[in-house]
């Protein structure tokens, strides 16, 4: 017979923790959909240039990335729940205070600094850490599902934000984003646990004779550990291949399409709400693509997956200038499908390579690689705004990004194999 204790643990708590992490990522994603939807309304309401607004977005994306490796180290030191709680509070505060903006610097302080730090603390390293601590089997799949949480947030909130900005006021949309972060806060904090050992359990998929063990805890402060991990990783050539590839990934997703697709479609005569609907549809296929990529990462060489993903993205960007029009035509829908499937499908194989190549340092290394992702996105967000301001069109930005994708595909295919790094602390 099955003992009461065994019945009580039939649903492994790893799935509850993964669900709480997914909810937290969805709530934090509320702002990820906002800049693209609010750029034109703010421009029209306050008379600021697109470059002014792009700078605030660029700083947000930059801090989002630079915070990630330190957030990973902080989560290892102080636990998931504390870091997630502070992150969601920062996002709520930044979104609410942004509604008071009367000058570009206020938008930089709220969108850029507060929300950048908050979302950076909830960056995709959070998903990698949950997968590494709570799962021995299905790691790729869990990473894909959690990563898709950001896409789900975009899917749910982007049309709402765009509609509120057009029909009501962009300030109301900002307050709604703040409310979303506060609503998910208690649910996320209650469901999160730092490790299976806290519950006297082993990770999902552990052998039957495995014993609970707390994750190794570094004696050095989180910031120093993050820097030390960077110093070790920087001596490995493959680290720089991952950095360059993921920087291009960020430039061609969050930085370019995530920030400028709606304004670019608006330039072509499409309404903002229609363009927002298309970008939300990208989110639909992003969920499918990321989960599928996690499944594939458990079965196929991640180097091959990355090369295919980047090459497909480059082709899509090369065609984009010819697809945007005042009405939605089948070719632009095809672009949305391809780009959606490819959006963050790169995350599971990249996280897997960090784990394969750097062992116990993998989550923090992934934090630094993700920082490069956001540095690339930050640069692209600002540069695309400047290109649009100076030339009146985004065409050069679309073509330049397509060329970068070819570079990323070549680099990814050539990533060397190497045994996992020894355990260090």
| Largest sheet report | none
Helix content: over 70%
| Head-to-tail CA distance between termini | 44 Å
Helix segment tally: 18
**Judging from the principal axes of the Cα atoms, what is the shape?**
globular
Average pLDDT: 83
Give an account of the 3D structure:
With 425 residues, this protein is mostly helical. The model is unreliable at 1-9 and 419-425 (pLDDT under 50). The protein contains 18 helices and no strands. Helix 3 (34-46) runs parallel beside helix 8, helix 5 (80-98) runs antiparallel to helix 9 (170-191) and helix 14 (302-319) packs antiparallel against helix 15.
Overview in brief:
With 425 residues, the protein is mostly helical.
Write the layout of secondary structure elements.
Elements: H1 4-8, H2 13-28, H3 34-46, H4 50-78, H5 80-98, H6 104-121, H7 125-134, H8 139-167, H9 170-191, H10 222-233, H11 237-255, H12 257-267, H13 272-297, H14 302-319, H15 330-342, H16 347-358, H17 362-391, H18 395-413
Helix pairs in contact: 2-7, 2-8, 2-9, 3-4, 3-8, 3-9, 3-12, 4-5, 4-6, 4-10, 4-17, 5-6, 5-9, 7-8, 7-17, 8-9, 8-13, 8-16, 11-12, 11-17, 11-18, 12-13, 13-15, 13-16, 14-15, 14-16, 14-18, 16-17
């Amino acid at each position: 017979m099955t003992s009461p204790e065994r019945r009580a643990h039939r649903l492994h708590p790893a799935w509850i923790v993964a669900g709480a992490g997914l909810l937290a990522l969805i709530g934090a994603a509320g702002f990820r959909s906002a800049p693209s939807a609010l750029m034109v309304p703010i421009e029209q309401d306050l008379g600021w240039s697109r470059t002014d607004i792009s700078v605030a977005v660029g700083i947000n994306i930059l801090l989002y990335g630079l915070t990630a490796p330190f957030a990973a180290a902080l989560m290892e030191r102080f636990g998931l729940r504390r870091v997630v709680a502070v992150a969601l509070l920062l996002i709520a505060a930044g979104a609410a205070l942004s509604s008071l903006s009367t000058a570009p610097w206020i938008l930089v302080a709220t969108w850029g600094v507060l929300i950048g730090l908050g979302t950076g603390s909830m960056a995709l390293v959070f998903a990698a850490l949950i997968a590494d601590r709570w799962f021995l089997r299905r790691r790729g799949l869990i990473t894909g599902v959690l990563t898709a949480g950001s896409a789900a947030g975009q899917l749910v909130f982007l049309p709402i934000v765009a509609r509120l900005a057009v029909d009501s006021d962009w300030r109301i949309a900002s307050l709604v984003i703040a409310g979303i972060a506060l609503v998910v806060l208690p649910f996320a904090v209650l469901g999160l646990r730092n490790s299976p050992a806290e519950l006297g359990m082993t990770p999902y998929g552990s052998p039957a004779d495995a014993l609970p063990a707390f994750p190794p805890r570094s004696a050095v402060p989180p910031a120093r550990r993050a820097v030390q991990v960077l110093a070790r990783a920087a001596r490995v050539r493959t680290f720089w291949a991952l950095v360059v590839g993921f920087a291009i990934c960020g430039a061609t997703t969050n930085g370019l399409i995530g920030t400028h697709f709606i304004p670019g479609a608006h330039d072509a005569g499409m309404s903002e709400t229609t363009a927002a609907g298309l970008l939300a549809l990208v989110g639909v296929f992003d969920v499918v693509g990321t989960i599928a990529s996690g499944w594939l990462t458990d079965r196929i060489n991640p180097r091959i997956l990355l090369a295919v993903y980047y090459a497909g993205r480059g082709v899509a960007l090369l065609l984009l200038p010819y697809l945007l029009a005042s009405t939605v035509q089948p070719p632009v829908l095809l672009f949305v499908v391809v780009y959606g499937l490819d959006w963050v499908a790169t995350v599971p194989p990249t996280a897997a390579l960090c784990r394969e190549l750097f062992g116990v340092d993998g989550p923090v290394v992934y934090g630094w690689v993700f920082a490069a992702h956001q540095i690339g996105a930050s640069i692209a967000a600002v540069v695309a705004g400047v290109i649009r301001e100076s030339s009146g069109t985004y065409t050069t930005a679309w073509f330049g990004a397509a060329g970068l994708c070819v570079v990323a595909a070549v680099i990814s295919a050539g990533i060397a194999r190497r045994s996992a790094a020894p355990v260090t602390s």
